[in-house]
Amino acid sequence: MPRSALTGTRIRERRALLGMRQADLARLAGISPSYLNLIEHNRRRIGGRLLVELARHLGVEASALTEGAGAALIETLREAAAVQEGGSAEIDRIEELAGRFPGWAALLAARHRRVRELERTVEMLTDRMTHDPFLSASLHEVISAVTAIRSTAAILAETEDIDPDWRRRFHRNLSDDSRRLAEGAQALVAYLDEGAEDPGTQSSPQEEVEAFLKAREYHLPELEDARPADPADMVAASQELTSAPARELALGFLVRYRRDAERMPLAEFAAAAREEGLDPGRLAARFGVDPAAAFRRLAALPAALAGGPVGLAMCDGSGTLTFRKPVEGFALPRFGAACPLWPLYQALARPMAPLRAVVEPGGPMPPRFLTYALCQPALAAGFDGPQVLEAAMLILPAETVAIPESPAQPIGTSCRICPRRSCVARREPSILADGF
Amino acid sequence: MGKRVLLIEDEPNIIEAIRFILSREGWRVDTHSDGTTAFDRVTAVRPDIVILDVMLPGRSGFDILRDIRADAGLNGLPVLMLTAKGQVKDREMAERVGASRFMAKPFSNTEVLASVRELTGA
């Protein structure tokens, strides 16, 4: 996986790409071949002048060796290849593409994002045409009025000996129906106009909310004060939240955030979180809240207070991700379904059973994460109502907490881009050329 | 003459227009506007033909037609279906359920008259 590829690996790849022998590069850089070999296998740190020197002989910027091409760019390219039916893209050479042709790679990624946006717009419009009750009712109204007018007008035009009483009656009906038709047509036009201006077609409402939260690093000081801002004002003032559905989603999120902040005041909660090693169960008990609230609150802590980054993924009963706060090394897919082996989904299958697991996403040198997962019924409609489940998974990297030394459960991001070939939970083949 | 048509439709002005044109041709026109009780009315009136709207309050015209086709006593009753949506899927549905003919709104009066005549052999 690109994000875990290391400087040494990149040097080796670049050298191999140029067809240069290890000994030759070592000589040019003024080091011994065995030392270069250690560097290439990531067993020696490299930096400073030697890095610049190697980069010069490899014909790349030093930063291309240390950072590789942007992880986000590569992720997008991988996704573009994944959605192409029967595509023949050289998946194993994505990083090379991005490194050698950054402009073309960025263009390809931008085209891919645009296609996804347009696909979503088409889906939304199709949905609207087929399922929108307002549109369907308005059209029915218009057609009914037109039918009555056509029939009545024909009677008046074609019946020569029509009784004056009937004639008056039909004239009145015509007048009523034409007014109804005008109103129906106006409502329809107004509705379609409104739809055309809906900027929500640019990206999904959830993505808008995510952009809003990401820009604030998922922490909202305005809602932490004793005299908090009004969530509705915050939504109205935001630049990221442009569509009505996104504003509605964001408002719900902010109201919930404020309620969590009231029950778990920031300073007190941050101190408790450190004392309890970020265990959401103990924190929930300490603050008398349900565990999901403690999950959310931990994810809202600034990294400085939590001791490091804290990731959070939430899903509903269908497994659809409803909230994504990723951490480096643990990708949360933007489209399509995630990995069924995630503790999040294991928890979904066992409501109310808490899960604590060490997991390891794929890759040559996979990082390990400590996860806490729990699924709870919302009971929003009472005990008799339909059962709505919400599952949450807290993702803690080694940077934030000490990871227990227990064996890690292998997981992935999404089957199509997962390198674990023989995974028992695989639902479709991977597009990656070869596994790790 | 003196044949009976049962018009099951919920738009008062459409009812009025159809009633007028059919009455002038000598038909006796009964009307009914509620989907839930429409089938009972069909069995009570025993008309020579039913003109049935698809979109009715309470119950869909397709469901009413299904009941009519399932009733042995109403065997062979011609049913002219009306719908506000001239969509292919509605037409297919009407054929599957057993409509004798399908007419999309807005229809012309002469079409209605001609269909009623043909379907009843009048």
TrEMBL record, chain A:
Coiled coil: none annotated. Keywords: DNA-binding, Transcription, Transcription regulation. One of its GO terms (molecular function) is DNA-binding transcription factor activity. SUPFAM superfamilies: lambda repressor-like DNA-binding domains. Residues 11-65 form the HTH cro/C1-type domain. GO terms for cellular component: cytosol. Gene3D superfamilies: lambda repressor-like DNA-binding domains. Pfam families: HTH_3, ScfRs. The keyword Zinc-finger does not apply. This is Helix-turn-helix domain-containing protein.
Automatic annotation (TrEMBL), chain B:
Residues 4-120 form the Response regulatory domain. The modification 4-aspartylphosphate is found at D53. SUPFAM superfamilies: CheY-like. Pfam families: Response_reg. GO terms for molecular function: DNA binding. It comes from the Bacteria. Keywords: DNA-binding, Phosphoprotein, Transcription, Transcription regulation, Two-component regulatory system. This is Response regulator. One of its GO terms (biological process) is phosphorelay signal transduction system. Signal peptide: none annotated. The keyword Repeat does not apply. The keyword Transcription applies. SMART domains: REC.
